[in-house]
Amino acid sequence: MSQAPMSDITQDDKLWAMLSYLIPLIAIVVLFMEDKKARPYVKFSAVQSLVAAVAVSIIATVTLGCGGILGFAFLWWAYQAYQGQDIRIPLITDFVRNQGWA
Question: Structurally, how many domains does the chain consist of?
Answer without folding.
Answer: 1
